[in-house]
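Budget justification, computational time. The allocation requested in the original proposal was used primarily to generate structure tokens for proteins on the priority list. As evidence of use, we reproduce two of the resulting records. The first is shown immediately below.
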Amino acid sequence: MLRVVRPSAAAAEDRGAVNKLELKLYIAGQSLRSRAAQANLQRLLDAGHADYSLSVVDVLEQPGEAEAANIVAAPTLVKSSPPPVVRIVGDLSATTVVMRVLGMDPDDSEVR
């Protein structure tokens, strides 16, 4: 079950209204699913006009970082900011769901 929690308008204003997304995408080399996740995420971020910081970690090259973050499957996208921390496992092809989890308005995007 996926649960999306949105802050109130007053809480958003207290935090400065717009928060930069802090994202980390864990991939496994150049597998088909990893490449798809990267492409889908980039397409969503570009179309959603989000302010973001994105790091990509290849778990095959940096297994210690994946272990420290408790990553058990790849690809996994971790949104660490703004709170709450959210993890999405898979190729990120469920566009509407991913955008909502990231706090982006799917109706206000150019994603096709």
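The second record produced under the same allocation is shown here.
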Amino acid sequence: MIFNGKEACYVGTISGVGIVVDGEKGYYPTNKGAGQPLEACQKLADKLNKEDGVDPGVAEDLQNGSMFGFHTPAAGRFRTKTAV
């Protein structure tokens, strides 16, 4: 999916479903899944990603990049060459 002109996906968080965006740390909160357990939020995020045509591997790389930095190998295909 595209969010603010960049590739993005949904992720489950302890506060609901969020959106992670290529090259950006953290996530944007949404009102989806609020008050639900983390496992339920992740299932909802997976469902929303599937509906939007987001490959699970892409979602994993985006989530890893948002947590560990897009300069790390964890960001996979979204890894940048610039150090932070």
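A brief technical remark on that second record: Residues 1 and 27 are 14 Å apart (CA to CA).
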